[in-house]
Every structure is written in C-alpha cells, then in structure tokens.
Amino acid sequence: MRTTLNVVLPDASEALWRGAPRLHDLAYAYLKGLLLGGGLDPGDQISSEAVGRVLSISRAPVTDAIRRLSVEGLLEILPQVGCRVVSPVPAEVKDLYELFGATEGVIARLAAERRSAVEADHFGRRCATLASTAGLPDEPDARFVDLRQRNRRRYEMLHELARSRLSTGIGESFWDRSDFLIRVAFGARDLPSFVKAGHAAFVAAVVAGDGPTAELETRRYLVRLGQDVAELLERRNRSGRR
C-alpha cells in the first residue's frame, strides 16, 4: 500500500477541459479518471492544494470533488491533509457485487420486458459491436480504458431499455466502484472469459424478451466476478503484509 503524499499528478487532458467547464466538475472528472483509469492506487494520499495546482484552480472546487468521491466510496477524507484512496476490504467487495448483481439483474429483467422489437434488434447489434475485439488498442492501459467504456455503454443502453430513471443514479455508483475494483484487482489484464460469456447471455435474453433469464444471467456473472475480485484483493493484501 502506498501512503505517500508525493504522488505525481499528470496534467489534465484537453478533452477533460472541454467536457467539464464548471470547476468542481472538472476536479471531479480529473480525480475520477485517475481512480478508474489509473494513476491513483489504494493508500495513495493527495492534497487538495496539489490537485488545485495541476488544474490551476482554487482549493474549494477540489474539496467539493473530494467530498463527492468520498460519498461514492472511492476516497476517504483526511482532516488537515486532503484525502486517501480507499483500500478495498475483500469481504465488503463480495457484498458490493451481491448488491450490484441484484440491482442490475432487475434492470435486465425490466429491459427484456419493456423493450420493443426494434429496440431489441438495435440493442443486439450494438452489443455485438461492443463485444468485438476490432479496434481495441494494443497498449494494455489504453485497452483497459476502452473496454471499460464499452462495458459502461452496454449498461447505459440496458438502463435506457428498462425505462427506469430511478435506476440510473444507483447504477452509476455501482459502475464506478466496480471499475475501480477491477482495475486494482486485475490491472491491465483482460477479465476472465466468463464475464464475456455473461454479457452475451444477458444480452441474448434481453433481445429474446426473456426477463427471468436476463435477470439470472446478469446476477450470476456479477456475483462470480465479485468473488474473483475479492480473491485477488485478498492475495494482494497477503503479499503486502509479507
């Protein structure tokens, strides 16, 4: 576990500046990008002043961003210091994915029950494109980010088909925490083959209008993924204690 305040923070990309014009949104997007895409790891400590210097903004919007990310379970606030990246607890990770699987399973069932024939066809074709390896970067870190974005789009479409506004905010929190945990546990490696098989199974069920199967397949692969992530994190913790 790293506990240094001397984390080297990269400059913000031009795309980030274009996508987050409000300063507190800029700071939030910057920090979340480092947490989900790489750059900040469990135990890393940073100060709001350091982030403000990189972004050339005041401390206030950075403090707001840190507070938001602490509520989402990605950072923990250190009074008079700044914040620290959370260190996942394997047992809690399993609980998280149990809840994640239950929630997304319901969304998958609603999507299967509520989608039209035209929407089902579009969803199936778009998911086939997302599942293809065509266009994936060769560089491991870039590949990980691309796959994460593809997976996020798959779930966004699922929620659109479910027509449940209430679910969107809940889903975002789970997606972000899962992306962070997967990055920490797997690094730049591809996920196990059962994840891709799980995606294919729930997509096929949604396209077919089979709600119970869509719910079952979604929940099953997410719970299994949580078990794998927890196991890898436990190994990481044991090796760190030696």
Fold and architecture overview:
- This protein is mainly alpha-helical and 242 residues long.
- It folds into two domains: 14-85, Winged helix-like DNA-binding domain superfamily/Winged helix DNA-binding domain (Arc Repressor Mutant, subunit A); 90-241, Up-down Bundle (Four Helix Bundle (Hemerythrin (Met), subunit A)).
- Helix content is 72%, strand content 4%.
- It has helices at residues 14-19, 23-37, 48-55, 59-71, 90-114, 117-131, 140-162, 165-186, 193-208, 211-241; strands spanning 45-46, 75-78, 82-85.
- Strands 1-3-2 form a three-stranded antiparallel beta sheet.
- A hairpin with a 3-residue loop joins strand 2 (75-78) and strand 3.
- The longest helix is centred in the last third of the chain and has 31 residues, at 211-241.
- The radius of gyration is 19 Å and the shape is globular.
- The N and C termini lie close together (12 Å).
- The model has no long low-confidence stretch (mean pLDDT 91).
Observed structural traits:
2 domains, Four Helix Bundle (Hemerythrin (Met), subunit A), 10 helices, Arc Repressor Mutant, subunit A, 242 residues, 3 strands, globular
